Amino acid sequence: MRDSILTIPINEVFEPKEGCPICAMRDTLEQRCVEYIMGAAMMEPDVRIETNAQGFCHTHYEQMKKCKNRLSLALMLSTHLKKLDFDAFEHKTLFGGKNAKQRKISQVNESCFVCSKIDWGMERFMVTLFEMYAKDKAFRELFSQQEYICLPHYELLINLSAEKLDKPTAKDFDKACTQLVKGYLESLTADVTHYCDMYDYRNTGKDADWGNSKDSIERAIKFLTTR
C-alpha cells in the first residue's frame, strides 16, 4: 500500500519492533491527548464542555499532574467540580426520578475525556491496521517480526480479525498473533522463573548470572495488563 496520512502512524509504531505495537499506538494517542488538553485546548469552550461533563480517570489525572502547566489542570478541576455539584446535588428536575443523583455520580465515575479520545482513535487505527494487513505483503511481514503482542491486545486483535478480514486472511493473522504471544510468553516465563531461582543461596555470589531476568517482573506486568 502507498503511504498515507492513515498508514504512516501505524508504520511508525511497528518499525522499531520493540514491545507491543498496539500498546505503542495507545501510548502515542494518550500522550498527544494529554498534551493537547493541558495546552491551549483547555481554553476552548467546546473542549471544556466535554471535560466538565466527563472529568478524567485516575491514570490520566496522574499524567496531567506531571505536566508543567498545573494551572490548566486546576482550572479544569474547578469547573468540573462546580458542574458536578450542580448536576448531582443542586439541580432539581421533575423528570429525573429518585435515582437521578446516583446516575449522575455513576456517569462521572465511569467517564474520562482522555479515555474516550483514545478509544475513538484506536477504533480508527484498527480499521487501517486490518486494511494494511489484508492488502500489504510488506506490512504482514513487518507484523510477524514484532517483539510481542501483549495479552489484552491479543484478545482485541483476535476478536476483531473475524470481523475485519476474510476467513483465509483472518486465519493467517490469528496464527501470526498467536506465534508472537506464545513465543514471548515462553521466554518471559523462563526469565521470571530464573529471577526466582536466583534467590536460592546456591546461586548467590559475585559471579551470579541474572541473565535477562532483572526486569522480568515489570515486563510480565506490562505483558499481562498493557501498562
Keyword list:
11 helices, 70% helix, globular, 227 residues, mainly alpha
Residue runs with pLDDT of under 50 for 5 or more positions? none
Could you give the count of β-strands? Answer: 0
| Mean pLDDT figure | 92
Specify the biggest β-sheet. none
**Distance between the first and last residues' Cα:** 31 Å
The outline comes out as: globular
**How many individual helices?**
11
Structural class: mainly alpha
Helix content: over 70%
Q: What does the radius of gyration come to?
A: 23 Å
Order of helices and strands: HHHHHHHHHHH
Approximate strand percentage: under 5%
Query: What is the count of structural domains?
Result: 2
General description of the model:
With 227 residues, the protein is an all-alpha fold. It has 2 domains: 7-135, no CATH class; 148-227, no CATH class. It has 11 helices and no strands. The chain has helices at 7-14, 21-37, 45-54, 58-65, 70-90, 100-109, 113-135, 137-144, 151-164, 167-197, 216-225. 19% of the residues are buried. The model has no long low-confidence stretch (mean pLDDT 92).
Short précis:
The chain is an all-alpha fold and 227 residues long.
Topology, element by element:
Blueprint (H helix, E strand, L loop, with lengths): L6 H8 L6 H17 L7 H10 L3 H8 L4 H21 L9 H10 L3 H23 L1 H8 L6 H14 L2 H31 L18 H10 L2
